[in-house]
Amino acid sequence: MNLDSYDKRILEALQEDGRLSNQDLADRIGLSPSPCLRRVRRLEEVGLISAYRALLNARALGLNLMAFIQISMDRHTPERFDNFERHVGACPEVLECHLITGQAADYLLKVIVVDMDGFQALLLNKITRIEGVTGVHSSFVMKSPVNKTSLPLLSSQQY
């Protein structure tokens, strides 16, 4: 799909504020409301806009400790990976799970908890109990100077 400048401006604006009314979005990008709404619906239909969400303030919710956990598995089989992914997917503390390469680890998890006690409970009561987990290496986030949710929309990209 080729995106024109209006499509890109729609995507950029909605990444900044997904609660924009169609009228406000149309005003912001310089289109009338009807064609703006048609474009948004088309972007949703083709899957470029996959969802709308609210971003919550973790600290205001008492979630003060973020960590990255590298996980090593005993076997590299689809069944073992499926089981692991199913278990970590059920943990609300796990924000992201990535199957990775180029490291000694097989997975990289991004987790958030209240404090070190919460981290210990997550690690010892949930993650290390998943069948096949043989190694765990944790790194704790001290600060996040760059923390984006918006994807870059490059002018030469084809969609």
Automatic annotation (TrEMBL):
Location of the HTH asnC-type domain: 3-64
Keyword terms of this UniProt record: DNA-binding, Transcription, Transcription regulation
SUPFAM superfamilies, A to Z: Dimeric alpha+beta barrel, Winged helix' DNA-binding domain
Tagged with keyword rRNA processing: no
GO biological process, one term: response to amino acid
UniProt-recorded Gene Ontology molecular function terms: sequence-specific DNA binding
CC terms in the record's Gene Ontology section: cytosol
CDD domains: HTH_ARSR (cd00090)
UniProt entry tagged with the keyword DNA-binding: yes
Pfam families: AsnC_trans_reg (PF01037), HTH_24 (PF13412)
PANTHER family recorded: LEUCINE-RESPONSIVE REGULATORY PROTEIN, TRANSCRIPTIONAL REGULATOR AZLB
Name this protein carries in UniProt: Leucine-responsive regulatory protein
